Automatic annotation (TrEMBL), chain A:
Keywords attached to this entry: Ribonucleoprotein, Ribosomal protein
Presence of the UniProt keyword Ribonucleoprotein in the record: yes
Superkingdom of source: Eukaryota
GO CC, alphabetical: ribonucleoprotein complex; ribosome
Pfam families for this protein: Ribosomal_S18 (PF01084)
Gene3D superfamilies according to UniProt: Ribosomal protein S18
InterPro entries linked: Ribosomal_bS18, Ribosomal_bS18_sf
Protein name (database record): 28S ribosomal protein S18a, mitochondrial
From TrEMBL, chain B:
Keyword Nucleus annotated: no
Protein name: 39S ribosomal protein L13, mitochondrial
Organism domain of life: Eukaryota
CDD domains reported in the protein's UniProt record: Ribosomal_L13
Pfam families (alphabetical): Ribosomal_L13
SUPFAM superfamilies membership: Ribosomal protein L13
UniProt organism field: Trichogramma kaykai
């Protein structure tokens, strides 16, 4: 009985294309939303680029060509995890410069400060899954609190 | 004399008890501040011939933070006067053995090398956590400000604050974060 149900499910998923598929062969990216609008006898199917969910929280961009961090005018420290979080992937890796749009110096600075925050154990949620989330569970000196000095970063404007 | 000036005068001439929370504080930087209070240098009547130092209670000394790689690089030297009796203990090993020791040694050094050091050092009370004996707790009347703000971990921040924080980076439209 279970086997028959399995076959039925397989047929439904793969041979009847009009049913909604839960499996896709390529990676789903969800950049565009497919919208179906019916007007009288015409059906319009269009792909619309969805707006960013945090569009309303975006800072105003400058016209003078400065990078987003320079134009924001904030002195970022390695403890500002809410800012640094925006420059990393979900596993804590730094995004490349062509994606972040930062200037050369700020990209280097942010990259170093992300490393500092990871070492200080401040970004435990942004780690690969097999890592220890809690810095207190590390070994030897790594479990003790460590802070870093931003003046030791070579890259700076002044 | 107004009641504010009067209490100021009491505070100056009496031995006050200050509390210092060492959570995420550098012991070597904060010991400079603590030494000032222990020697009475913060008072207008301060003078080398005048004994006006206060008591300082340091709590959470097990939660101190050292800079960069100092846990491995800073070394405490001891010699037991015998041949080959020199020993070098790394800061993290000393902290593992006694979580109050680094704080005590830092303040002892910051007090300077003269005869007032021992009396001032006797007024320092270091505790590894926030559990203080009641007779000391009843004396406390002032708090010393921390040098560095205690950093907030990402998993300690509330989801509302995470959601509503301003966005600096605008990623390209076709780029999807993994």
């Amino acid at each position: 009985m279970a086997f028959a149900r399995c076959i039925a499910k397989f047929t439904k998923n793969y041979f009847l294309p009009d049913s909604s598929r839960s499996i896709s062969i390529t990676a789903t990216r969800n950049i565009k939303e497919i919208r179906e609008v019916k007007e009288n006898n015409t059906t319009i199917i269009e792909g619309i680029v969805k707006p960013h969910p945090k569009e309303h929280l975006m800072l105003k961009s400058c016209d003078n060509g400065a990078c987003p961090l320079c134009s924001a005018g904030v002195n970022v420290k390695h403890t500002d995890v809410l800012i640094l979080k925006q420059f990393v992937r979900s596993d804590g890796c730094m995004l490349p410069r062509r994606i972040t749009g930062l200037c050369n110096i700020q990209q280097k600075r942010v990259g170093i400060m992300v490393t500092m925050a990871h070492r200080a154990g401040l970004m435990g949620t942004l780690k690969p899954k097999n890592c220890r989330m809690d810095p207190k569970k590390r070994r030897d000196w790594r479990k003790y609190n460590t802070y870093y000095d931003e003046t030791t970063i070579k890259q700076s404007y002044y | 004399m107004s009641i504010v000036r009067r209490s100021q005068q009491w505070g100056t001439f009496a031995r006050m008890w200050h509390v210092f929370d060492a959570t995420w504080q550098d012991p070597y930087q904060s010991s400079q501040i603590i030494a000032k209070y222990l020697l009475g240098r913060h008072k207008p009547i301060s003078h080398p011939m005048n004994r006006c130092g206060d008591h300082v209670v340091v709590i959470n000394s097990s939660e101190i933070a050292l800079r960069g790689d100092e846990w491995q690089m800073r070394v405490y030297f001891h010699h037991d006067t015998y041949h080959g009796g020199a020993s070098w203990t790394k800061a993290w090993e000393l902290h593992k053995k006694d979580p109050t020791m680094i704080m005590k040694k830092a303040v002892y050094r910051a007090l300077g090398n003269n005869l007032t050091r021992h009396q001032a050092y006797a007024r320092l009370h270091v505790f590894l956590d926030d559990k203080i004996p009641l007779e000391i707790q009843q004396n406390l009347s002032s708090q010393i400000k921390q040098l560095r703000p205690v950093p907030q971990r990402l998993d300690q921040i509330s989801p509302e604050e995470l959601e509503n924080f301003p966005q600096i980076v605008k990623l390209p439209e076709t780029y999807v974060l993994t």
